[in-house]
Amino acid sequence: MKLIDEFRDPELCRIVLEKIRRKSSRSITIMEVCGGHTMALNRFGIPSLLPDTINLISGPGCPVCVTGRGYIDNAIDLALRDNTMVCTYGDLLRVPGSESTLEKAQANGGNVRIVYSPTQCLDMAEHSPETAFIFLGIGFETTAPASAVTLRRAKELGLRNFFLYSAHKTMPRAMASIIHAGVKVDAYLCPGHVSTITGIKMYEPLVEQFGVGCVVSGFEPLDLLQSILMLVEQYENKGAAVEIQYTRAVRPEGNLKAQKIMNEVFEASDAWWRGLGVLKYSGLKPSPSYNHFDASEVFGLTTNEPADPPGCRCGDVLKGLLKPVQCKLFGIFCSPANPIGACMVSAEGACQSHFRYANT
Ligand code: SF4
User: Fold this and answer.
1) Is 331 helix (H, G, I), strand (E, B) or coil?
2) What pTM value is reported for the model?
3) Beta carbons of 167 and 137 less than 8 angstroms apart
4) I want to staple 339 with a disulfide (CB 3.0 to 4.6 A). Which of 157, 160, 235, 345 is the partner?
């Protein structure tokens, strides 16, 4: 496909890489906070091409990885109740709860259905009024609008058997909390898909308060290299700023329609993040006029967040304090075939993407 080929052009990549090498004179740590970027960087071998002055670290941008084991435990509990059906995206199936997974619960007769969108769950709810359908809402500002639209539709239809169990999260507070936690981050490679919805204003406090550069990046090799070059230029000469590299998809103001519906359907709530703990107002739950769809309220779910398995360092990986290969379980006891932590389960997890593409 021509469009993709252009963003993978080896000669253009070589030119940008050469510019990065020429301009990068002092050590800079760049954190990517999008699981899609983690995967793309490793898949295209970009870290190994960069000069030693550039240290790439992964952050808390994989939604499955930051979701707690307590949430999975509750989802399993819902799946094992009478007359319920838990609907989920497939990447959550193998994420470990404290003792089991949704996949194992399904094998043991639990009511779990993989869906590709929340509207599939809604359709099933419409046709089976005797069953309570619970959609597991995972993801950042990218997937939250789909959940919001579905809740609005459920309200229009007057459904009483459709619910959202929300683990939706929003990015800005997590990015700030990484810096507050004392992690050395000089620049953020900002998430492309999230920014199509939110726009870029939310990154301005990171520049103003912490002097951290922010560039919203696309996902192809040329996108990533150009974004790294823009961050290096900010760091070396221009000073920290918010810039968009991914201009073919991201507008400064974001998607106003999606923002409007999210503001109508959701309100900010405190949320637990693996590695970061509870961050105030960093989650999304149904607003008061939608709270009869809130599975947490309706089914009385409380979360006791169990610790990760012994030896698993997912929390440190998600804060950028540890590279996946530095976890003693990496590749020996923990692999995509036998994952111990959430970062090895998801295709966007730092551990799985290092295992598949880097493994060094
Ligand atoms: Fe956790 Fe496995 Fe990654 Fe270690 S390698 S941090 S156990 S997911």
Assistant:
1) coil
2) 0.93
3) yes
4) 345
Residues 38-66: tens digit of each pLDDT = 999 999 999 999 999 999 999 999 999 99
Burial of 321 (C-beta count, 10 Å sphere; 0-12/13-18/19+): middle
Q: How many CA atoms lie within 13 A of 346 on its CB side?
A: 25
Distance 358 CA to ligand 1 centre (A): 15
**CB distance 340 to ligand 1 below 6 Å:** yes
CA dihedral of 231, 234, 237, 239, whole degrees rounded to 10:
-150
62 lines ligand 1 (CB under 6 A): no
Cα(318) to ligand 1 centroid in Å equals: 10
User: Whole-angstrom Cα distance, residue 72 to residue 102?
Assistant: 7
Nearest CA to ligand 1 atom 8: 341
Q: What is the pLDDT of residue 358?
A: 73
Q: Ligand 1 pocket: which of 42, 308, 314, 322 to mutate (most atoms <8 Å of CB)? A: 314
Residues pairing with 31 in the sheet:
57, 188
The alpha carbon of residue 47 and the mean position of all alpha carbons in its chain are separated, in whole angstroms, by 21
Could you give the CA distance from residue 299 to residue 114 in angstroms, rounded to a whole number?
21
> The tokens of 335 are what?
């692999």
Q: What is the pLDDT of residue 305?
A: 84
247 contacts 227 by C-beta, under 8 angstroms: no
Of the candidates 266, 280, 268, which has an alpha carbon nearest to the alpha carbon of residue 164? 266
CB 177 within 8 A of CB 169: no
Instruction: Work out the pLDDT band at 359, boundaries 50, 70, 90.
Output: low
Where in the chain does DSSP place strands (E)?
28-32, 54-58, 84-88, 112-114, 132-139, 162-168, 187-190, 213-216, 242-244, 266-273, 277-286
